[in-house]
Amino acid sequence: TPSASMTICGVVVASMLLYGRKLPDLIATTPAPLKWVVALFHAIGPHVEFFDMRQRMIHSWGMVSWHVCGLVLLYALCYAGVCLLLARLAFKRKKL
After folding, report:
1. For FRET with 33, which of 14, 26, 40, 68 sits at 20 to 30 Å CA-CA?
2. What is the mean predicted confidence (pLDDT) over 60-68?
3. pTM (global) more than 0.85
4. CB 69 within 8 A of CB 51
């Protein structure tokens, strides 16, 4: 259902905003079976922490360069494209 999908997306985005930068450290300290689950989530999860500017604003850091903004935008477009392609393939196989 749409409400369940939005809830799952909200939980994933919120967790990546809160823990996205800490996941590599967590992967290094986690035991083997759970390490693979966390590493898989880190690999396929949306890296919305790339767009998080809270630390930069709090500490009055300089502006982000244009090539970094372009790479992050390219990442977002590629991620959205892959998600749309997977959704298209899933709905194409589904019978109406």
Report:
1. 14
2. 84
3. no
4. no
State how far the Cα of 92 lies from the Cα of 96, in Å rounded to an integer. Answer: 10
Confirm if 13 and 46 have CB atoms less than 8 A apart.
yes
Q: In the chain, which ranges are E strands?
A: none
Q: CB count, 10 Å around CB of 16?
A: 20
Provide the pLDDT for residue 7: 95
Distance CA 92, CA 41 (A): 26
What is the distance between the alpha carbons of residues 40 and 60, in angstroms, rounded to a whole number? Answer: 34
What is the C-alpha separation between 22 and 75, in angstroms, rounded? 20
Question: Cα–Cα distance between 24 and 89 in angstroms, integer?
Answer: 31
User: Residue 6's pLDDT band (boundaries 50, 70, 90)?
Assistant: very high
61 pLDDT tier (thresholds 50, 70, 90) = confident
